[in-house]
């Protein structure tokens, strides 16, 4: 009985093509993994993170989302290039061969999961609640591990593929792939770089919202009720001090131009005005540089509180902000007051603050 012969005719099914795309995929995944680790680490206080440069986190998180999106066309082109291997027979040649095949299965699944959950998170606010960060973080390790195995196994093929030049139709396939990836980058980069916004259809959220700044969680969604007798409480070893909003507004004010850089990739820079946290600490006899727990009026919710580490409480531009772009904060931006600190993930810029506790 004669076996049916499957022919794969595209010149893109070639190690010269797949190894070149593979290099760029490795770069995109590498950037995405490292910047993701940075973001996760800051949110879990794993390491010392400075308050300057002001836009550093804005940049690393922008790179995280942009490199993840850039990988999608590369991934599709890579799959197209190598998929005929799925039809190679025998399915399993040896134990190492079986392990290698298995690692590709794990790799594909993990990378698919990361890109899909990442893109959904950029597009749809908190679709997964707490589950998203945990799962996205855990699967990232699976992806990186299987990529390392894959690269190690394929190194001889990659070297051979790169050593051989690409001709006409293969070069066109590669150029189309780079172009598609470039378009994906442009479509997303406006979330990080404001002047690219007009050509960035995926970054429309950045300036849509009250006072020209996007809102992830509105005051209504967070169930915020500001009591008539609201006071900011500052808890220090010396005791508790309370300030009305008028008293806060009567203290010396600082204005700082700082970004909100959301983990989801959108960002918006504004002029914030308020009282430096360092000044409030001095008023209760605490030296700036102490860690401060920030509590909000939000009754429940994953982002209702945060902790400002030492480098941030010492920074004169870390504000208990009362105003944005010259206006009182809208309820959705955290009225009566919010934290805005340089070089921090947006998720830690706590709104509707009720209490600062010196640790
Ligand atoms: N209390 C509280 N503060 C919060 C949040 C929240 O859900 N509750 N969301 C955070 C997130 S994820 C971001 S990106 C910023 C957004 O601030 P904005 O809505 O003023 O743009 O607020 C942060 N502060
Ligand atoms: Mo956010």
From TrEMBL:
The keyword Transmembrane helix applies. The chain crosses the membrane at residues 21-42, 62-83, 104-123, 135-157, 178-196. InterPro entries: Di-haem_cyt_TM (IPR016174), OxRdtase_Mopterin-bd_dom (IPR000572), OxRdtase_Mopterin-bd_sf (IPR036374). Keywords: Membrane, Transmembrane, Transmembrane helix. SUPFAM superfamilies: Oxidoreductase molybdopterin-binding domain (SSF56524), Transmembrane di-heme cytochromes (SSF81342). Residues 226-358 form the Oxidoreductase molybdopterin-binding domain. The keyword Repeat does not apply. This is Molybdopterin-dependent oxidoreductase. It comes from Actinokineospora xionganensis.
């Amino acid at each position: 009985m004669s076996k049916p012969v499957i022919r794969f005719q595209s010149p893109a099914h070639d190690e010269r093509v797949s190894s070149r795309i593979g290099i760029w995929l490795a770069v995109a995944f590498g950037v995405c993994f490292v910047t993701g680790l940075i973001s996760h680490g800051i949110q879990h206080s794993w390491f010392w993170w400075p308050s300057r440069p002001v836009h550093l986190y804005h940049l690393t998180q922008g790179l995280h989302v942009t490199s993840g999106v850039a990988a999608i066309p590369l991934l599709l082109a890579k799959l197209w290039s190598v998929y005929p291997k799925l039809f190679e027979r025998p399915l399993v040649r040896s134990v190492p061969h079986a392990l290698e095949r298995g690692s590709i299965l794990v790799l594909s699944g993990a990378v698919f999961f990361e890109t899909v959950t990442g893109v959904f998170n950029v597009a749809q606010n908190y679709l997964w609640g707490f589950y998203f960060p945990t799962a996205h973080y855990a699967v990232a390790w699976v992806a990186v591990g299987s990529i390392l195995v894959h690269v190690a196994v394929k190194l001889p093929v990659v070297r051979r593929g790169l050593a051989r030049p690409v001709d006409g139709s293969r070069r066109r396939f590669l150029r189309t792939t780079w172009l598609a990836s470039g378009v994906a980058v442009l479509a997303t980069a406006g979330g990080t770089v404001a002047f690219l916004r007009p050509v960035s259809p995926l970054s429309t959220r950045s300036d849509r919202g009250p006072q020209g700044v996007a809102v992830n969680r509105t005051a209504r969604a967070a169930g915020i009720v500001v009591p008539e007798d609201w006071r900011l409480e500052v808890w220090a070893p010396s005791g508790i001090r309370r300030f009305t909003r008028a008293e806060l507004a009567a203290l010396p004010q600082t204005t700082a131009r700082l970004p909100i850089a959301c983990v989801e990739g959108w960002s918006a820079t504004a002029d914030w005005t308020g009282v430096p946290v360092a000044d409030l600490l001095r008023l209760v006899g605490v030296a700036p540089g102490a860690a401060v727990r920030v509590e909000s009026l939000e009754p429940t919710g994953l982002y209702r509180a945060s902790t400002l580490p030492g480098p941030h409480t010492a920074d004169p531009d870390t504000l208990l902000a009362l105003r944005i772009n010259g206006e009182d904060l809208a309820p959705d931006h955290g009225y009566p007051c919010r934290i805005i600190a340089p070089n921090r993930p947006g998720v830690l810029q706590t709104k509707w603050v009720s209490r600062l506790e010196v640790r």
